[in-house]
């Protein structure tokens, strides 16, 4: 089974995660911490079988395939580049699309 490296610096995922964390923390610091660890755990599952997730609609807007991993009310948008999964964005319901 192929193993992939995870790269969260390829897009805006790190800032997306921080913004979502801060938003949740305003209401519940405990829930923000739970959400953070959950999203990180789910992202790490992409080290194997990264192509198991469906193609995201945003793929039609760019010249490469964008996949999305659904985590609760959030979508982790990523691309596969050789042996690396590049996490591009994390979007919640009602947030702007990838582009």
Report a brief summary of the structure.
The chain is an alpha+beta fold and 99 residues long. 31% of the residues lie in helices and 25% in strands.
- The total beta strand count reads 4
SSE order, as H and E? Answer: EHHEEE
| Beta-strand percentage range | 25-35%
> Into which percent range does the helicity of residues fall?
25-40%
Shape-level CATH architecture: 2-Layer Sandwich
Q: Main β-sheet, in a few words?
A: 4 strands, mixed
Global geometry: globular
| Spans where pLDDT lies below 50 across 5 or more residues | none
For CATH, the homologous superfamily is named as: RelE-like
**CA distance, first residue to last residue:** 32 Å
How would you explain this protein's 3D organization?
The structure is a single chain. Helices cover 31% and strands 25% of the residues. The protein has a single domain, classed as RelE-like (YaeB-like fold, 2-Layer Sandwich). It is built from two helices and four strands; from the N terminus they run βααβββ. Strands 1-4-3-2 form a four-stranded mixed beta sheet. A hairpin with a 2-residue loop joins strand 2 (67-71) and strand 3. The chain is an alpha+beta fold and 99 residues long. The longest helix is centred in the middle third of the chain and has 16 residues, at 29-44.
Secondary structure elements and pairings:
Elements: E1 5-7, H1 13-27, H2 29-44, E2 67-71, E3 74-81, E4 84-92
Parallel strand pairs: 1-4
Antiparallel strand pairs: 2-3, 3-4
């Amino acid at each position: 089974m192929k193993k992939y490296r995870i790269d969260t610096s390829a897009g805006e995922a790190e800032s997306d995660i921080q913004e979502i964390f801060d938003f949740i923390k305003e209401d519940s610091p405990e829930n923000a911490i739970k959400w953070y660890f959950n999203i990180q755990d789910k992202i790490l599952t992409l080290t194997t079988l990264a192509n198991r997730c469906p193609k995201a609609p945003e793929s039609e807007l760019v010249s490469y395939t964008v996949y999305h991993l659904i985590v609760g009310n959030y979508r982790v948008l990523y691309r596969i580049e050789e042996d690396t999964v590049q996490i591009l964005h994390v979007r919640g319901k009602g947030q702007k699309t990838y582009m």
